[in-house]
Amino acid sequence: MKKKYFCPLLFFLVLTGISAKDYYYYNGNQKIPLVMEDKLYIKFNTPTAKPVLKKTYNDTLIYKQGTVEIHKQAVNTSINGGEFPQSSSPVFRDASGHFYGLPGNVLIFFPEGTGEKEALKLLKEKQYTVIRKLPLRSRLVFVLESPPGIPSLELADKLQEERNPFQALPNWWISRNIR
Question: Domains, the chain, ranges and CATH?
Fold first, then answer.
């Protein structure tokens, strides 16, 4: 009798996506949920970008803003487990419907009054590579090295969840409509 209900329940769980990974990021202490768009990826066209894939499988360009392009993958496999070209990211959306992409790196915001030497010492102890300091007057902000895509999101979330004395945010690319 138990086996009779197992297959429909399993089918329902797969169909509703309960087994899919939940993605999110932190804005301060607020956890913001994200939806990863299946078969879409953002290609960040930089002068040093070298494609990992030899062929793009006739992917369809669906959005372009400056040097950033969003493509729909033409192959039948899901991009979640597939390869991305170097300098590419999966496409995420939040509740507002904006496209989000992760070109790489994580932004670290220290509280006001934190000394630069103290901040750099802390980041060095944790073995993070600082790319540069951002020139903001009110707060100390550093950019940490991270690969594009999901690894930068996961690093920012990990740093935020560790209760560090700083705020960590992924270096987001966000689509904007100019009116």
Answer: 23-97 (no CATH), 106-174 (3.30.70)
